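so my prof wants the structure for this chain in the tokens format not the other one, which i didnt know existed until like an hour ago. anyway here's the sequence
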Amino acid sequence: QVQLVESGGGLVQAGGSLRLSCAASGRTFSFYAMAWFRQAPGKEREFVATINWRELTTYYLDSVKGRFTISGDSAKNTVYLQMNSLKPEDTAVYYCAATGRVGTWRNKDEYEYWGQGTQVTVSS
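here's what i got, hopefully its the right format
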């Protein structure tokens, strides 16, 4: 079994920053990609950012480009999300995800492994 554990969520004022972390444990192997998704109340889970360990490419949701940065360590199966200039609309539960498959890595259906989520609340 693979477990993903997120940390780093919390309450922050608009314009502030948070750094989310996600570590994999258990029957780990070299993931092809890891990503962050988020889900606000009453909304679908949406893609936020992904990093492809083989090609070291990253992709972002348009609304977070220039504010969020995904990074990590493939050897440790650890991924981070640095979130700056946070806005109230960034409020959501943020989920870490990982996959061993090739794909676009921007669709939640492409990921086999998920963390339990961490709450991020941005006050105005």
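also thought this was worth mentioning. The CA atoms of residues 51 and 63 lie 17 Å apart.
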